[in-house]
Design a protein that fits this description.
This protein is α+β, with helices and mostly antiparallel strands. The protein contains 1 helix and 8 strands, in the order ββββββββα.
């Protein structure tokens, strides 16, 4: 996949890419926003803008280059993004809601199991 390159500020698309928007892990700890101008902003826990940089999408693959020069990639499966060992779901999407409910169920099951030890 080609390395993402900065896009000129004056360049605009008629319509944003369908992957533009906010995605997050099921626990909400990592939040990544893909902006329409080809940049991304990732928050981790209480740290806003922990990682920022450029991204480029080719088909279902995404390539990142952060502002320090580090590069990474990921893949999309509908509204689900797999990146750096994490699974991100579109904020307020069905997949995000389902993942959140599964995590809540697993946490409750772990608490019940711990209470019976």
């Amino acid at each position: 996949m080609p390395t993402p390159r900065p896009r000129p500020a004056e360049a605009t698309d008629a319509s944003p890419h369908p992957y533009v928007g906010m995605r997050m892990t099921a626990d909400g700890r990592i939040r990544q926003e893909l902006l329409a101008n080809g940049r991304y902003d990732e928050a981790r826990g209480d740290r806003e803008s922990a990682c920022t940089g450029f991204y480029q999408v080719s088909g279902t693959r995404i390539g990142y280059v952060d502002d320090t020069g580090f590069s990474a990639d990921g893949t999309f499966d509908g509204d689900v993004l797999r990146h750096a060992g994490y699974i991100f779901h579109r904020e307020s999407g069905d997949a995000h809601q389902q993942a959140r409910e599964e995590r809540q169920w697993q946490t409750a099951a772990q608490r019940r199991a711990g209470a019976h030890s």
